Amino acid sequence: MKMFSIFVLFVLILVHVRNVFCIGLTTIQDNALCGLIAATTVSNYYTDWSCDTNGIVSTDPCTTLWKNVVCASSAVVSITVNDKRITGILL
FRET label pair with 16: which of 26, 32, 78, 88, CA 20 to 30 Å apart? Predict the structure, then answer.
């Protein structure tokens, strides 16, 4: 759980960097979200959370309203997954 919390913090830092430098829901957020999805069982619980084979989110989590994802100005600012028993290893 500690590693998962660190990863979520990392995702939020990336979101902050995106907002400061205006880099777009782009590669940084795609990589962070797709890394989380690939490394954990989160998509077993949230089936709308998915990525294509290139590591790009399949649908925009902000415009399609992914469950437990909060956006502001088209950027993911919060994800909440503490109500599930998600497992995985984040490196």
Answer: 88
